[in-house]
Amino acid sequence: MNDCETAIDEVRHQEFKSMNMNMDAYMEAEPTDEAVCLWYSDIGQRIPALRKMLGQMGYPSATRSLLGWLDSYFEQCENFPPGKFPNQEYVKVLIQEFVFYRAVEKNLQKMTTSQELQLLEELCHYLQENSKLATIHNIFDGLFGNSGHPLKDVDEQRRLAMMRLVSMAISIGCKVVLDCTAVWMYNQDCSSHSINLADAVMTDFCELVSGLKDTIQRVAQTSPTFTHHLLTALMSHYNTYQSTSQPIKLIPPAQLDIVTDWIIEHPTVCLRHALPGKPPSRIPSFYIHASYKASSHDPSSSGPVPGLLWQSVLSPLILDANRSQIQKTLDKRFSVHDYSLLFSKLHLGILQAFVTTSDAKATTSKGKARAGALSLSDIESVIMLTVHTIQDNKISRDAVQIAVERIAQLLQVSIATGMLNTTKEKVIPLCKELPSNDLLTLILHEKLPS
Asked: Among the four residues 180, 196, 329, 352, which has the most C-beta atoms within 10 Å?
């Protein structure tokens, strides 16, 4: 860090200290019985004074001061259940008026482009300076979380701001913002909000702006957890069932190129749920997520793996059946042959990930084995889609054999590495639906651990 940056940080520190002292003065006015009344308990009565003080500060000083106050608020709310933090509505009002909008007299005005850029820089810096993990995630959720209901105007403003914040974090390698976004996506449970975020990020960095490949490639190293959830949301986006003739939408080649590089260079990025240790815990949330179900984050969840398998196995069938149509839609940088090779690379990356993560058969404190990478339902779904795609399209024998051999290789490696979360005996009946293949027959009948 150079002298100029050090001086700027020192000025910011002094500003935060001064403004927080002013905030404390407002909060401590007309003190009540401190033994029974926490500092936030009567915030409703103090809102007019807080608004007046923040309004007089102007932007960005008001936002900086409010962030410092939110830090204290969330730190003292750690033991409250999700969505049950005290005086939430008042906190939402302050965030709305002094973070994402400007309060001008009695009206709210949207930020200008320059104000939004300044805000994003402030948020990046603020989160990097804060060392308490739970507080950081709660602040992030307070700023960008939502209740799961249809987006309102203010939520749309926040959604766009969050997308730009994540893009900035990717560009400058800001790990703390990406890690916070990973928790946010985990809490969202592949909702439309997290899927839209993943789609926007990949489209911006892989397709709309040239020369950013190296930037997006570094994400897997900067924040493997964010990359894992990004992949999970991305697979949900492209693997929405289309029709029997084209059951999934293939990942565009520019995005596929990045995805395969992530998996080849960092094999465990798609299997973090199967690594030794406890599954991620749910950090208390400022918002109640209406779509959340207690069972949706079972540690046996397969993350992005099922979606990656669908893309890997079905791609030779879809490319063969729709070659001329797909060629017309491809970027000039890619031919159908290049596209096909990328899917072969993806398949290799998945196999490599199984091998690299083979030690994931670690046991928990209760002595139960951690879940593998592939469940019986994962295998059943990819086989079903393969069979339907073959039946409903004119596909060459070579393409069919490639698809079936990929299933066979996935089974072989997952069995050998302990990544199969079921027994081979349960898989054999499912495979009878597939076209005959020598490699598949050999694997299903050879003596491997099951």
From this structure: 180
